[in-house]
Amino acid sequence: MSEPASISAGIAARYATAVFEIAEESKALDSLETSINDLAAALADSDDLQNLISSPLISRDEQGAAIAAIAAKMGLAPVLANTLSLMAQKRRLFVVPALITALRDRLAEARGEVTAEVISAKALTKTQSEKLAKTLAERVGKKITINATVDESIIGGLVVKVGSKMIDSSIRSKLNSLQNAMKEVG
Description:
Order of helices and strands: HHHHHHEHEEEH
Number of domains: 2
CATH superfamily of the largest domain: N-terminal domain of the delta subunit of the F1F0-ATP synthase
CATH class of the largest domain: Mainly Alpha
Distance between the termini: 37 Å
Low-confidence stretches: none
């Protein structure tokens, strides 16, 4: 992880911990999750919002006023709206994407869920995805949420990442290991 990315992740983790604990104490985890999903969707859809949180040319006051108006218009959970306002005052809005990721991780952990990153050569069918989730859940002992992506360069098979463990059964990796074995022989 690069130094700026690790700094952003550290800042986001501290804010996420505070937001999560406050929401948990006030039994508002469901509204927090809805707000996080709404904010993530707005960030993905709006270049203006991305510019607002990342531009150093926008003053603290302008960022604070804009983020407060956005939070009110979107009906974000109060704990998240207040945190975003505080982040604007401290010039920390650039970590909002990392904050969203950290909060989603905390919410999944609270529900006993683990996200599995799955890369396949073709899109998984619903049946394949469910079967893979069931198999992984038996191995891990927690409910599995699959985040599937397609990468045709792996030719076939799967690359599965669950936490710090990775299983690479792709044809590309098998061909690479065969190529390395053949180099050692010759």
